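Aim 2, interim progress: modelling of the flavin-adenine dinucleotide-bound target.
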Amino acid sequence: MSKVLIIGSGISGLTCAISCASRGAHVILVSPFPSERAQSVLAAGGINAVLNTGDGDSIEQHIRDTLKGGCDIAGEKAVRGLCTAAPDIVRWLESLGTVFSRDKDGEIGRRAFGGQSYPRTHYAGTATGKQIVTALVMEARRYEGLGLIERRFWTDFYGGLIKDGTCYGAMLYSEATRTIEAVTADAVVIATGGQNALFGKTTGSTQCDGYTAGKLFTQGVDLKNLEFIQYHPTAIETDQKKMLISEAARGEGGRLYYEEDGKRVYFMEDLYGPGGNLMPRDVVSRCIHEAGRQVYLDVTFLGREKILDRIPEIYELCLKYRNLDITREPIPVVPSVHFFMGGIAVDLHHRTCIRNLYAIGECASMYHGANRLGGNSLLAAVYSGKVAAYDIKDTKTGQPDWSDLIKEENDKLIQKRNSSSRFPVMYVRGMLADTVNSTLGIVRDKATLENGITDIDYYLGIAGKINYDRSELEYYNYSLEGILTLAKAVLISAGSRCESRGAHLRRDFPERSDSLSKATIISYDNGKFTTRLSGEDEYEG
Amino acid sequence: MKVRILRQSGPYGKPYWQTFNYDGDSNASVAAILDNINYSDDIVDSEGNPTDRISWECSCLQGMCGACAMVINGVPRLACDTFAKDLKGDVITIEPLKKFPVISDLVVDRGIIQENLKKVDAHIGEYHQEEERDHELEYQIGRCLKCGLCLEACPNYVKGNNFFGPLFANDSYFVASRSRDNGDQIKKDYKKHFAKGCSKSLACTKVCPMNIPTLASMAKMNRGF
Ligand SMILES: Cc1cc2nc3c(=O)[nH]c(=O)nc-3n(C[C@H](O)[C@H](O)[C@H](O)COP(=O)(O)OP(=O)(O)OC[C@H]3O[C@@H](n4cnc5c(N)ncnc54)[C@H](O)[C@@H]3O)c2cc1C
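Predicted structure of the complex, ligand included:
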């Protein structure tokens, strides 16, 4: 029986755990908090699959839409696998208890999402991700009962147990015992989600910080396509985050405008005609950016009744967090970082470049190319979990002795902790977010990216020297360097792609370049960051 | 405005009260107020004494994940979903949930929720494809955050006893209605770990941030539907 260590218990980690256990593996599923707190529960819109070909839709069309949405740099083989498996995945999720909505014919409810030729986004009310998590948690519990899944909470990833290109397990930090422990396994699967902490405020969860990807990068793991970061065009800003105003508001007829000389300019309609408000996310975000002033989303003309009936969650959100009655006032919106197409580089089986180390879900870069279609990421989270589980074999690799390493790392923690330093780690994170937001905005250029790298080098310089802020969780302290390293890798990747494609727009290179229809791979060796372009066959095909 | 917080430096620390000044936005949520106290500057209490940052748990910050459950002015609530303007008086009192062991300040260990559900092996198993059931109720139950607020409010729930509390009544119905092979077992577990212990105070329904109609689940389970 193989032993599999899975880090992260959102939709991808849960799926992988269930799939490994159903194949008889023993799984240790690690996350600081239960799955109900993972970002996956925020996904509202739905999950893509062609369940019904009656209206002319087909799996081939789903594949074409995904490749086109990704601006021709996603691997066709990978996308084909994803879209082909999608119908079975949705049925599987339902069979585990996901309460999907039903249409009038009793079929699973589906809606139209941007960039897709047919309505194929299947939903569970306004809580698709949450309903899927509820079902997966129950199914995982079945295997917990059988002793095949062991869940560990209050535990964070610290680093990989990696030697000579092979992964033997991971170092885990326990907030309860405040120590690092080596957990060995035949395979390690990383399922830690996106990189929100680089930006501070995003539409997502504070738990997605990118640390794991950053740390593994310094341990030899390639990262890929980091420059592709999806901005959702419409969010409202609050003290602590940017809250998503779903596409549904515009789907129902909501109109974007700004004010000029006391008049409203419906700029999306002026640019693209009556359907302008519903252009793909990257286009709308770019237009809002180019407007260069406060943009509003107006739904008032729909009338109170329709608003309360069709988009009640948006009404409530605005009232609660902005004291704004959207039946009477327009919504001031801002684009917000929403999804990371880039992440850990993996092949078709979700293997990283380190043997026995896998990455799945949003932390892995796969399927979405330069731009993700809404509804494809929940699908990818489930699919990747299954694919990785299928590939994991009982390796029975002999284990090196890790005791010296663990002692050394624990000593480092103690040394950094035993100080009365009040250097506030969260302020460094705040400074990082300022840098990243000002350099990795919707439109980038060489000079600002280079300045950003200089800033991050400075933060990295101090991060290595300062002692820990004892009044913070130790995790916040030790994760800082990994997060900063990842941020630097993202900026370098963005600087290396001298073209505009999908979510990566360069002021100094406004056109797409055919010769760059490849993925960016970045690797790390002893403080040195190296980027290169990689064809589809290296990782995705 | 003053914010009084019941603090505890670790699982074995002694609880103590500490008061902070807050003069930010009065429309802010309690979660935003905690962040403001923690990070506006070096943290000091209302007497100006430097102190440790306040630990509390968060993830989504918009009422969808249940991380920031705590007791605010005596009522179990989510901090990100509770706003200063809706609270009476000019002192906000914040305590950790009392029915769970404190890890640090406002962070508690709610692991018992998962442990209890694991004890009765609450899962669907073989799926029961039947359209006659109450889809809306199942959807509402599927939104349960497992935040523990219902357990905090429930007069019958005491850690370690046999009564698993309101969230279990909901999960019982969810399993019973969707499972072909696990329904009978969960009905027995419902009797043992819920029906016998519930005194129907309905305090749970008042604090549930998702407004899950627990009473409807109980009615279905009691009738054996
Ligand atoms: C507001 C919003 C709406 C969305 N709507 C949709 C939608 O409608 N359709 C769609 O397809 N996609 C949507 N998405 C995207 C989708 O939700 C995510 O891509 C997907 O849920 C990611 O799942 P995951 O399992 O990879 O990661 P997550 O759900 O983010 O889980 C990550 C896990 O890793 C753990 N973790 C993190 N760091 C560590 C560490 N250092 N050590 C240990 N554990 C760690 C976390 O605690 C968590 O358990 C949306 C995203 C947002 C923010």
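The helical segments of chain B are 30-39, 111-119, 135-142, 149-153, 166-178, 183-195, 203-207, 214-223. Chain B has two domains: 2-108, 111-222.
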